[in-house]
Write a structure and sequence with these properties.
There is one protein chain. The protein has about 210 residues and is of the alpha+beta class. Helices cover about 30% and strands about 30% of the residues. The chain contains seven helices and nine strands. Helix 2 packs antiparallel against helix 4. The structure holds coenzyme A (COA). Coenzyme A (COA) binds next to helix 3, strand 5, helix 6 and helix 7.
């Protein structure tokens, strides 16, 4: 299937890579919640800030691509650059207001510090065809299948953009059993280990499409 999409097309219409899906509600197999996956838009600053401020200490301990405050949300929404980074949201409509329940960063390229580690592993990263992932799901929605639905969508988007591999931003903590299971389930394989900070082990994991 030739379903390629270009950055220019996403810039012209970000909702081109949006989709709807149903998240099963625990306890009742028949009940479902309608969730939207879509890129971050300039108008999302307030709801993204609410998402950041709502993250628990435990989630922040596992996930730290940038500070989680309103000022950062304002900055990210003011400086959207789809050619460099896609910030995908999962949202649901709650009492007529749209609420963010997941936030996945997909850098269209590689970060220098990740590339340096992969070079030491003799796996040179390719900025033009690799991409870099940092996923998070709101605490109340973790382990309910939302991350997997969003991951499947994001992999499709990355493939449509012509990307060939996906790596983890800053790896994943060796103690983050759920994340490791999650990545393996979606086809990532562990290719290396590194200590950061000293005494804390992390894994580098890569997915080849
Ligand atoms: C990691 C994260 C993005 C995954 O999203 P999610 O919506 O929770 O993931 P899903 O519910 O789709 O899948 C989680 C899987 O882990 C499994 N799991 C849950 N707890 C687990 C544990 N302690 N050990 C191993 N596996 C576990 C679930 O059973 C499920 O696997 P299954 O589908 O095979 O049953 C989300 O949990 C999160 O944001 N965690 C906190 C931040 C974080 O760790 N980010 C990643 C940093 S590298």
């Amino acid at each position: 299937m030739n379903d390629l999409v270009t950055i220019k097309e996403i810039q012209e219409d970000p909702l081109r890579i949006a989709t709807l899906c149903y998240l099963p509600v625990p306890g009742d197999g028949r009940d479902k919640t309608l969730v939207t996956f879509r890129p971050l838009l300039a108008r999302d600053a307030r709801r993204l800030g609410q998402y950041f401020l709502g993250l628990s200490d435990e989630t922040r301990r596992r996930y730290g691509p940038h500070p989680f405050d309103q000022a950062t949300a304002d900055m990210l929404c003011a400086e959207l650059n789809y050619a460099q980074t896609l910030r995908m949201l999962a949202t649901l409509d709650l009492e007529e207001a749209e609420q963010v329940i997941a936030y996945f960063i997909l850098v269209l390229g590689v970060l220098e510090r990740d590339a340096a580690r992969y070079a030491r592993l003799a796996i040179p990263l390719a900025p033009d065809t690799d991409c870099t992932l940092a996923p998070s799901v709101a605490d109340a929605f973790q382990s309910r299948g939302l991350g997997s639905l969003m991951m499947e969508h994001l992999i499709r988007v990355a493939v449509r953009l012509g990307r060939k591999r996906m790596v983890l931003m800053g790896g994943t903590q060796a103690t983050n059993a759920r994340a490791i299971h999650f990545y393996q389930k979606h086809g990532f394989r562990k290719v290396g280990e590194f200590e950061k900070p000293p005494g804390f082990n992390n894994y580098d994991m890569i997915l080849e499409f």
